[in-house]
Amino acid sequence: MNPQLIGVEELTGTYPFDIRQSMKAMRLNRFFWMMREAPARTRWLEERQAAYDLAKLTEEERTLVDNTDWLGLVQYGVCFFVLEKFARVVKITNLGMYASMRGETLEAFLKTRKVPDAV
Q: 19 CB contacts (<8 Å, ≥6 apart)?
């Protein structure tokens, strides 16, 4: 184990993205990375199962994507930066993802931020 990660599992809400996680979620990370390309976005929007088949996603991975389970995807090992690509496809902002990861609505989440005039 990376000595910098010793004890990290004791930090609630911390999900390190390391080589082990990266390898476990390689298919999903590649799938989401491809969302920067219009044909990949169109394929997923119009032929979801074909997109999953092409990416060789497992049933568990397909379920995480279908449910837009942002926290589950991070816990599975997906890199947040590729999730941003997919979030745009499903028309969710980063703030919307953060709220979902906390189990909150966007409005409730914004009330916890120090943002003038937040909803």
A: none
- Other beta carbons within 10 angstroms of residue 11's beta carbon come to 9
pLDDT in tens, 75-93: 899 988 999 999 999 999 9
CATH topology of domain 16-91: Protocatechuate 4,5-dioxygenase; Chain A (1.10.700)
Helices (H), 1-79: 19-24, 26-33, 38-46, 48-55, 59-66, 70-76
Q: Where along the chain do its domains lie? A: 16-91
Q: Which amino acid is at 100?
A: S
User: pTM for this one?
Assistant: 0.80
